[in-house]
Write a structure and sequence with these properties.
Blueprint lengths: L3 E5 L4 H5 L1 H6 L6 E8 L5 E10 L2 E9 L8 H15 L4 E7 L4 H6 L3 E7 L6 E8 L6
Parallel strand pairs: 4-5
Antiparallel strand pairs: 1-2, 2-3, 3-4, 5-7, 6-7
EC number: 2.3.1.-
Protein name: GNAT family N-acetyltransferase
Pfam families: Acetyltransf_1
């Protein structure tokens, strides 16, 4: 089965609909990076919705249909998103995830937990994770 990836750089939703975002993220300072993965029948099977601003990539949504998980597509998509963001000037990445989601997946790719809300939802935790995109100097 073959897959295709479409990149959309046209989303300005927060700049248009939020007074706070308008003042903090002036026009052209927010650089959307939205990537959709489709199967050979042109059905959406995964994607990332993200923005680059203040030299950060913020990943807001990252998903794959359960039937397509474990095939390396998520790793490839995350890497492609980081590469695009780096080209737009991002030096770091931030995202949030729940304990029952894919914290361990992100940790495999160098993300570190910098914040935790315990018992949200009850019996679990909600994490803020970050990663540097800058080369590590020895």
């Amino acid at each position: 089965m073959k897959y295709s990836t479409d990149v959309s750089l046209e989303n300005e939703f927060n700049n248009e609909h939020s007074i706070h975002h308008k003042s903090a993220k002036r026009n052209e300072s927010v650089q959307p990076t939205n990537i959709i993965v489709t199967d050979d029948k042109d059905r959406w099977i995964g994607g990332i919705i993200a923005e680059v601003y203040w030299n950060w990539l913020e990943i807001n949504d990252f998903w794959f249909d359960e039937n397509f998980r474990g095939k390396g597509l998520g790793s490839s998509l995350l890497s492609k998103t980081e590469e695009i963001a780096s080209g737009k000037g991002a030096t770091s990445v931030m995202l949030t995830t729940f304990e029952f989601q894919v914290r361990s997946f992100y940790e495999l790719y160098g993300y570190k937990v910098v914040g935790e809300v315990r018992d949200y939802p009850p019996g679990s935790s909600y994490y803020t994770m970050v990663k540097s995109l800058e080369p590590i100097m020895d």
